[in-house]
Amino acid sequence: MTSPARRHFERVSAALAAADAGEAPMQGEAYELMQAALFEDYRLLKSTQSMERKAEIKREILPKYAEYVSGVLEAGQGAQDDVLMRVMLWRIDAGDLAGAIAIAKYATKHGLTPPDQFERGTAAIIAEEVADQALKQLDEEGADTTALLVHLVDVEALTRDADMHDQIRAKLHKALGYACRATGQLDDAQHHLERALALNDRIGVKKDLERLERERKQNAAATPTG
């Protein structure tokens, strides 16, 4: 386990490097050390076929980047940072949506771009990957549906004005609809599912909307009047 002194050093070193870089691409010893670690971890992940195991590996390796990320978010001026962007994606895959969104807010504010192999823009990646992860978690027993809804609302607000394919935005609204339904917010659920359907008529929510409408009518009938 890394000592508190070492963690402090890593965070401060990253903050100084981020501040020194300004708006130029990230550089310096702290960044190069993280790049080297990232390269080795990326090789490990590429050699692993199981998606479930990949997620486990990401949960195991992500703590080594935590202080670097904290330092960059604390003092960064918007330097392009491939380490930061990769960690954001790994956090989503590992189920750490709060940690990923913290990076996403910085990335969208400063216009950081995703790693080269991604054809989608940053906002589209955030919207789609968080939606996919949220939909997966919503299917799991004991999911924290309130927290998932908060994360999805954050992402929707963060990416609302960005240009992206309608299918991606539809998926985000589908996830929002399911999260609202899971937390008992049926009117909001209907709004988001209808929006998802309007954006993509193959999004697969028509039957959900029918069930939701029946449930809302049942609730209305059961509510005392007067």
From TrEMBL:
InterPro entries: Phage_P2_GpM (IPR010270), TPR-like_helical_dom_sf (IPR011990). This is Phage terminase small subunit. It comes from Vreelandella lionensis. The gene is gpM.
